[in-house]
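Note on ligand handling. Small-molecule inputs were canonicalized before submission; formal charges were left as drawn, and no protonation-state enumeration was performed. Where a ligand contained multiple stereocentres, the stereochemistry in the source SMILES was retained. For pyruvic acid, this procedure yielded the string shown in the input block below.
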Amino acid sequence: MLIGVPKEIKVHEYRVGLTPESVAELVLDGHQIIVETGAGVGIGADDAQYAASGAEIVADAKTVFARADMIVKVKEPQAVECAMLRPGQILYTYLHLAPDPEQTKALIKSGAVCIAYETVTDAYGDLPLLTPMSQVAGRLATQVGATALQKVGGGRGVLMGGVPGVAPAKVVVIGGGDVGFNAAQMAVGMQADVTILDRNNIVMERLNYHFENRAKVVRSTPAVLAELIKTADLVIGAVLIPGAAAPKLITREMLSTMMDGSVIVDVAIDQGGCFETSKPTTHADPTYVVDGVVHYCVANMPGAVARTSTYALNAATLGHAKKIAKLGWKEAMREDAHLLDGLNVCEGQLTYAAVGEALGIDTVDAASCL
Ligand SMILES: NC(=O)C1=CN([C@@H]2O[C@H](COP(=O)(O)OP(=O)(O)OC[C@H]3O[C@@H](n4cnc5c(N)ncnc54)[C@H](O)[C@@H]3O)[C@@H](O)[C@H]2O)C=CC1
Ligand SMILES: CC(=O)C(=O)O
Ligand SMILES: [Mg+2]
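Structure output:
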């Protein structure tokens, strides 16, 4: 198969779809790889490294999209990229369609076969292609939250760990999955006063077992949440209903009960965000203030640590990429129902029910496309 890797074009996105090492593996499998010039500079991999791994370097994204059977990316295709897709071409990347009607319509119109990393499942009911980036974003969430809490970050001037004699910051993490666990782990490490909310008993048990008395684990209800945010210095939004638009758990009215200079980091912004007042921001201008509360809502947080993130992402995505390249998407999905779960758009039709529900677009069963 001819596999193409364009340079990411989202603002301050430095990750790349394939590392030189992944390219070498695919070449060894007998595939041909084309990489846009400069695609790997953000992870410290130059054209020469890709060429040494067996890739052909091409001058622009247009050439990559025109020639490749499968495009391997990181972030959802931007409008100019959607316009370059063609019927039957495979797009393998994050999509996050539920909050994004424009991209969804463009992908349907393209006729391409669009596989979303974030909805591929595994035998444990997890989302293995989302997990590594959730681990990164969770860890970053605490880091950026701590920075925003400083006066120069617009925050109320609170140190996460406090000092002997002065209380630490109160951190509330909503959702105790991959993002929430990792955010809490960093906050506990900084000696903050940490509370994690979830509503899944197994998740709560796991958190309780792991953190013991270093973090409180609380069942998430609207009443509990409303009470906790009133005294929180930092609230991290980390809920997920797979593929669906994130539930708005903190309304505008609830936000007004939070302290001036408190901070929210809405990691779930890629699925629309779990605060009513959240809107996507970029690494170039990551925060804004509503009702005195600093909002950080960057939808591609892992792009900031592109090298760590790209290697972690490739470790999760390469296996399926190899399978698709070897068998073609139809056969690969017939053999692997977990990969089929990743199919969001197929040759002009939407194939993911939660996206259809969020956007009011008719869907067909993904299996009917095989
Ligand atoms: N902004 C960014 O750059 C990035 C964003 N993300 C996003 O972060 C979000 C979380 O991802 P993961 O942690 O991997 O998901 P996950 O599935 O591992 O965890 C989500 C947790 O939310 C819980 N939950 C659902 N409804 C809840 C409620 N009402 N109250 C409390 N908890 C609730 C679930 O029980 C689950 O434990 C997703 O939207 C993901 O796409 C992930 C990576 C990067
Ligand atoms: C998951 C996601 O949105 C990201 O890694 O950018
Ligand atoms: Mg998870």
